[in-house]
Structures are given as C-alpha cells and as structure tokens.
Amino acid sequence: MRIVGLTGGIGSGKSTVSNLFKAHGIPVVDADVVARNVLKKGTGGWRKVLAAFGEDILLPSGEVDRPKLGQIVFTDPDKRQLLNRLLAPYISSGIILEVFKLWIKGCKIIVLDVPLLFEAKMYKWTKPIIVVWVNPETQLQRLMARDGTTAEEASSRINAQMSLDLKRDKADIVIDNSGSLEDLNEQFREVLVHVKNPLTWTEFGLSR
Length: 208
Ligand code: ATP
What we know:
By secondary structure, the protein is of the alpha/beta class. The protein has helices at about 15-25, 30-35, 45-55, 65-75, 75-105, 135-145, 150-160, 165-170, 180-195; strands at about 1-10, 30, 110-115, 130-135, 175. Adenosine-5'-triphosphate binds near residues 13, 14, 15, 142 and 146.
C-alpha cells in the first residue's frame, strides 16, 4: 500500500486538497479527526489532558472545551508542547489503526493528512510528501475570512507553527495554493497522475 503524505500550514488548503483526493476515490486518514477522537470524554488522552490542564478546560458535559484549550496552547509555547507530547502517542496509534483498516480493505493508495507530519516525524511513513504552500498574505486573509479572527490572532496562529517555507523545502511535491480554486484543481490533476504512477517520480528526483 502506498501512503502519500499531505501537509502544509494552518489555512494553507490541506482540507481542500484532501477533499479532492476523496472526490477521486482515494481514501484519506485525517489526523485532525483522529485528534478529536483521542480527546473524547473518558479516553486515555482525555484523562492525561485533564490531569495536566485541570478541570477548568472541561465543559459542563465533561467534554474538553476545545476553543478554550486552543486559546491556552496558542498563547503559551510550553503548554502547546506539553499538549502535543501528551497526545502524540494516542494520535499516532489512532492513525496507525485507521491505516490498518484501509490496508485490510485492500486499498492500494491512501493519503495521510497530518498538519504536524514533519514535527511528529510521520513523514517517514509516507511517499511522496505533498506540501500545500500558500503565500503569507493569502494565508492570513483566508484564515481571517474562514475563522472570523483578527489579523493579530491569525498571525499568532501562523507563527506558532513550523514555517511553511521550511515545510515546502522538505516536500517531494509542492502545491502552490496562492491562486484560485481553478489553479489548485489544475495542479491537483497533475499531482494525481504522479501519485498514481511511481514511474513518473524521477521527474521530481524521487526514488521509488
Ligand atoms: P487548517 O490547517 O486550519 O485545517 P487547511 O490547511 O485545511 O486549514 P483549508 O481549510 O483547506 O486549509 O483552507 C483554508 C480556507 O481557505 C478555507 O476557507 C478554504 O475554503 C479556503 N481556500 C482554500 N483554497 C482556496 C483557494 N485556492 N481559493 C480560495 N479559497 C481557498
């Protein structure tokens, strides 16, 4: 089974590209979905986070108040690191389980959509690695429009992540999503050909 890595920066267009893969019948394992599941009330991840952050981060229902936790970790790098460290093992095993289920089903190509593909070293499982890049101004504008946040909030979220240019440098294939959706679709069609045909990978200097 070929596991294609898909990553990028916040608001760079990963989900948009991931939807294109799904629309072309290629299953996607979405790390954000896995991450939501590992924080569900009563799970191991939920218990760890509760022990580290206290009951203040819970809603009356006992579920984690995600926006509140998000606010805490985005303004405090140490807490962000702590949260990542606590949840990383649960997220990795959740992702492995999803990959395994698709392997059992006989899928030949799947996509791993993981925002922290490099940071969590999961890029080692994937080939080719696709990075969805966008220019900084467009990234800021799209993030503000999507989340209804100020430029300051959006910038602090962008700056809390590994630089998108650094991710681009580590990619096998870069999709530049600074243009229109039509532009994106056009690039995607070409990428899809390469993803499906390893014989074309030498064009990217990739070994098979
Ligand atoms: P996150 O990491 O926050 O989940 P993401 O990388 O998955 O973000 P998307 O949600 O796919 O990014 O895209 C961010 C926003 O930009 C969305 O509102 C999306 O509809 C919009 N968008 C993505 N690509 C384009 C494009 N080429 N033209 C216009 N809008 C776009």
